Amino acid sequence: MENILEVKNLNIDLITEKGNKKLIDNVSFNVGKKQSYGIVGESGCGKSITALAVMQLLSFPLKTSGGEINFHSEKESVNILSLKKNEIRKIRGKEISMIFQEPMTALDPIFTIERQIIEALKFHTDLNKKDMSDMALQMLKKVGIPRAEEILKEYPHQLSGGMLQRIMIAIALICKPKLLIADEPTTALDVTIQAQILDLMNELKTSFDTSIIMITHDLGVIAETCEKVAVFYAGQIVEETDVVTLFHNTAHPYTSGLLKAVTSLGDKSKNLFTIPGMVPAGGHMPKGCRFEERCNKKMKICKDKSPELIEIADGHKCRCWLYAESGDN
Ligand SMILES: Nc1ncnc2c1ncn2[C@@H]1O[C@H](COP(=O)(O)OP(=O)(O)O)[C@@H](O)[C@H]1O
Ligand code: SF4
Ligand SMILES: [Mg+2]
């Protein structure tokens, strides 16, 4: 499969008065053309800042401190990290677009829905006003908005969270991007609306031939939408494989913990399982395995030496001493 995006040894630092703290540590992954690639992990693992780096949207006190983000469009291949501001603007919103968790904060309260949808068209195309309005209307219909003509003239505060998220999807897709990054697109929505939005994204992915990076803390969302998945923990990838293997041949103890949390959701007799302990904070990483404090499979070596991400089966990578030779014991 050809790749649309290749992230190679990405590092992101937090700049502080006492020096830089590494928040993303040598993250590498590839997203195939038309593929749905999932990034999953608890809050604080570095999912959003990784996505922001792909859009070149990191700002002080965060900065990339190494690596490449190669984007392959039909026309050319570019390293996003080396693009100038005017160059990334041509790609952002056109070739790569992003949907955020909170549509209300991403939309501007003082402009109509129509104005916000055609903003990207104004910037990226030469269409006239009538054609832009027609496209906005078509797009609203595609994302399943009822009374689309009327909604175009309304303002964000007049609409529900589910409707606003559909509008965010319309805005993200209006220029037919090659890559759509969805950062927790359904987390703020209630469960039925969540399912509708995920169905909609699956449908649109097929009709637009878009690649998707789906970011979520919820393995249930990954199961519904993704083909391949990377599990993030404390700024690193700890497991990467296809979605079937992740669920049926889970390797990393952290992934097993996340899975337990999903399966107990449907079982009301049990308390919701959460992995005990917390994700270590950026800049305060333990010397050994970053999951060691919380791991129920830990061994002696885990505290002393950090495991590498290695291929444990064809296309299945894992960062854990259970699957690696330590070299010295
Ligand atoms: N603007 C910021 N300033 C300082 N630290 C930040 C900022 N944004 C994110 N971080 C830190 O970076 C780490 C990763 O954050 P984030 O990517 O938002 O996690 P996730 O999306 O997985 O919940 C966290 O430790 C978070 O506190
Ligand atoms: S390396 Fe050790 S502590 Fe880390 S996940 Fe594997 S078994 Fe657990
Ligand atoms: Mg996030």
UniProtKB/TrEMBL annotation:
Segments forming domain ABC transporter: 7-259
User: How is the protein disposed in the membrane?
Assistant: Peripheral membrane protein
Q: Where in the cell is it found?
A: Cell membrane
Please, which domain of life does this record's source organism belong to?
Bacteria
Under CDD domains, the record lists: ABC_NikE_OppD_transporters
Q: Which keywords are on file for this protein?
A: ATP-binding, Cell membrane, Membrane, Nucleotide-binding, Transport
Keyword Nucleotide-binding in record: yes
Q: Which GO terms describe its molecular function?
A: ATP binding
Look up the coiled coil feature and give its residue ranges. none
Q: What protein family is recorded?
A: Belongs to the ABC transporter superfamily.
> What's this protein's name?
Peptide/nickel transport system ATP-binding protein
The organism encoding this protein is Sedimentibacter acidaminivorans
